[in-house]
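[job 0412] stage=complex_fold ligand=adenosine-5'-diphosphate status=START
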Amino acid sequence: MLNVHDLCKSYGGARSRDVLRGVSLDVARGEYVAIVGESGVGKSTLLNLIAGLDTPDRGTIVLDGVELTALDDTARTLLRRSRMGFVFQAVHLLPHLTAAQNVALPLALNGTTPVAGARRVNEMLLAVGLAQAANAYPRELSGGEMQRIAIARALVHRPPLLLADEPTGNLDADSAAQVMRLMREQVKREGGAGILVTHSAAAAAGADRVLTLTADGLRPQAAQTNSDFRFA
Ligand SMILES: Nc1ncnc2c1ncn2[C@@H]1O[C@H](COP(=O)(O)OP(=O)(O)O)[C@@H](O)[C@H]1O
Ligand SMILES: [Mg+2]
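[job 0412] stage=complex_fold status=DONE, emitting structure tokens
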């Protein structure tokens, strides 16, 4: 479903260096993949390229047969809005909108009216266990609750691809575990694919496949026992 081939990216300027040097990745529909790696290795860079938020120096990204890397900015933005969902470490809920209004945003951006979208918004709030918080504002929610709202928002428009960048970075262990479980459950339930980027091996434990990003590219991670976690 997602085919990333030979992606290269370097940043210019005084500290110019190659961040990604020929990264390739294939993700199948329904698959939930974790990408781990040390801080600064280029995980966010890779995710932003897949999201079309930035463009690679070389290489191709194909989502469901559409080559992202061949699209102009406008076409890429439209594709991102309709076919992708995002969860970030900094939750990015809009403070002046209620939980339900935040969840509804991707529907609105894709042209669904609030009335038509209401049932779907409720369904997602229920799925993340926060139906009772529909009318609450972000400041009235805990960090874990905000991140669960962000998951509902990321999946409300049924995107084929969910991208998550360190989604549990600011959470305590219990909330983090709950958020990870929910994200996996929802990706599987909605039938999409998910890519989770994290420096935490514990967070990656629920993935179907764990890949490690190093300066030499993405490598499958050998099966590990809990005591072997290097990035926890
Ligand atoms: N916009 C940018 N301009 C210049 N350098 C950047 C930019 N974004 C990231 N970098 C550099 O690229 C490297 C990889 O960053 P990043 O992808 O954020 O790593 P990770 O998410 O794995 O911690 C880092 O050395 C970072 O300083
Ligand atoms: Mg990062």
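The chain has one domain: 2-9+18-222.
[job 0412] exit 0
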